[in-house]
Design a protein that fits this description.
Arc Repressor Mutant, subunit A, alpha/beta, globular, single chain, three-stranded mixed beta sheet, 8 helices
Length: 192
């Protein structure tokens, strides 16, 4: 018998990319990989992780085709949450308004559309997670709409849960094609 524990073990190891390691060493390598895997962060932990943000950067050549020239602010997740948290009952905000507030705050030309949307999604899930834990005064994420007053189907509870919350606050929601839209949402936008 060879040091690798037999031909079967060497073949199995070869398929995993560890062709020259003996079985004992393979087991040790496997244990190391298992120990490296960390438990997933909660939504609230993701929201609190600033990732060395905010940052203001020059708009890249690739981005300039769509967004023009100048600077872009990549916000911290908490900044997006703070804006969403400030929307009172009966009022609404869109991702584009959040981006404009962030750009103004950081003296940038635009707020990053991708990270702002991602951080709004994280804030929404963190709020739902906190509410499930019994915490009060969570971020009213259902008041943050997509462009055109469209309800974000990726937020917790999906469209139906958000529709119910928006209707409780006096808004009318209708279906337009695949989307659900708040009627006359422009009349209820927060003042910038």
């Amino acid at each position: 018998m060879d040091e690798g524990g037999g031909i079967e073990n060497r073949c199995a190891a070869r398929h995993r990319g560890f062709e020259s390691l003996p079985l004992r060493q393979l087991q040790t390598e496997s244990e190391k990989m298992t120990n490296k895997s960390k438990p997933r962060k909660s939504w609230q932990e993701k929201l609190a992780d600033s990732k060395d943000l905010p940052k203001v950067q020059k708009v890249t050549k690739k981005m300039s085709k769509r967004w023009g020239t100048g600077t872009v602010v990549i916000p911290a997740p908490k900044e997006v949450d703070e804006i969403m948290r400030g929307v009172a009952a009966g009022k609404l905000i869109t991702i584009n308004e959040i981006r404009a507030i962030l750009a103004d705050k950081h003296s940038a030309t635009i707020g990053c559309p991708m990270t702002t949307g991602i951080f709004a999604w994280i804030a929404a899930n963190a709020a739902a997670e906190a509410a499930a834990e019994g915490k009060k005064n969570t971020t009213p994420y259902w008041r943050t709409l997509k462009t055109g007053g469209v309800i974000n189907p990726k937020y917790p509870g999906g469209v139906e849960a958000q529709k119910k919350l928006l209707e409780q606050e006096g808004h009318k929601v209708i279906q337009k094609g695949k989307n659900h839209v708040v009627v006359d949402f422009e009349e209820h936008l927060v003042e910038l």
